[in-house]
Amino acid sequence: MSKKTKDKNWNYSPAPESSSSATIEKRYNLFINGKWVKPSNGKYFKTINPANESVLSEVAEANEKDVDIAVKAARKAYDKTWSKISAKERAKYIYRIARMIQERAREFAVIESMDGGKPIRESRDVDVPLAANHFFYYAGWADKLEYAFPMRKPKAYGVAGQIIPWNFPLLMAAWKIAPALATGNTVVLKPAETTPLTALKLAEIIQEAELPDGVVNIITGAGKTGAAIVNHPDIDKIAFTGSTNVGKIIQQAIAGTNKKATLELGGKAANIIFEDAPIDQAVEGIINGIYFNQGHVCCAGSRLFVQESVYDEVIRKLKWRMKSLIVGDPMDKNTDIGAINSSEQLKTIEKYIAIGKKDGNQIFQSECFLPKKGFWCKPTLFENVAQSDRIAQEEIFGPVLAVQTFRTVDEVIAKANNTPFGLSAGVWTDKGSKIFNVTSKMKAGVVWANTYNKFDPTSPFGGFKESGYGREGGLHGLSAYLKFD
Ligand code: NAI
Ligand code: MG
User: The domain spanning residue 360 has which CATH number?
Assistant: First the structure.
């Protein structure tokens, strides 16, 4: 390659996905008992597109009264229909939902990217297919619970209250609703206030699939609405994904009650690169672990540990790769990094970048052009981070990587586990024995080896320590919605 060609700044032509497949109503009411009903206080709030700050729609704000109506509908549906019909019938409905998500996959992907800011490539190739897969997977178990848990008599809890975050809006709804339905529970689900639209689209599908009224209720609102679900006396089980702070509030709120809970909270995952790792693949894994999806992933590989002997090579290649990341329009199929989900989240990320600088860490940011409107953050890396630095200890939830070095296996295991969290980790090495040794000592719910951020409905996901408790996905995720005699 001649020098001239090498230095040329190649740009891809824009390849925007059309938004024409997306039908977004001007206003959404609450989906309760199979119908769209107005909120009792008449209040609505706006949801915007974080890539351009335009208003997409307004959605109802449910208060305690609405929550009560929704829980009553779910209870009635549980008592009168859902617990009475055969498991085979339940499965049919869940399969139907899975197929309908597939049929409307493009619309879901487009709306997900518009409402939340994630690149269309990710919502199209990851979020939506995985959401459909979760429904397919759990539909398959619905009439086989006795085989899933032999010699035990599994029984549904009753009504599940489910509260989900904004980073994987449709996927989190699928993670929560599919196993609940398969096990015979009914549901009141609340999406996050910045990304309610795909859950409301899912409500449309649930209506079209002719699920019995009240089996799934989808209500919108912010933290207060979530708290009203948690505190409602007739909820049997809470499933929550979100911040550790809110997880702690929920734990306190249900202490002393009979409510069961699964809490999937924050993370500060270690991604460990040994000197014998395939370096190019590892660099791609680092990029995938922290920069794709704007770092809005609870299992993001936000702490990078590189063995000293390959440090220079890894960091040089990583910076070079960071420079080629395309930040911008989430609807463009070339985009690697979309918009930050909200101005609040951007402020949080910027606060941590300022803390990282103040602590004297060496910062590197790729020189990319950021759009004027919307919420954006450049892919950021901090070198020479100390174990005690806040950017190495606290969850940032943005495209910010804290890099540390290590010399020995024992040293990196100790450093990686020295965190209040324990959701996930990654290990890159050529040696199978090293993988077994390190992964078995990692205090994290999910450990990837020579890959990162891979998900599958058959595989349980969940945390240790402040990352929460309980598992979603696989048989573990099924048992989280069942009691056993
Ligand atoms: P959050 O935990 O406040 O929101 C998650 C969900 O909980 C939303 O649906 C929200 O409306 C609801 N909620 C809020 N307060 C509640 C309460 N008292 N009772 C019941 N439900 C309540 O998260 P937020 O404020 O959006 O993000 C803050 C930080 O949380 C992020 O910077 C990130 O570090 C972390 N986070 C972690 C996620 C994960 O997947 N583990 C997802 C989203 C955020
Ligand atoms: Mg939005």
Answer: 3.40.309.10
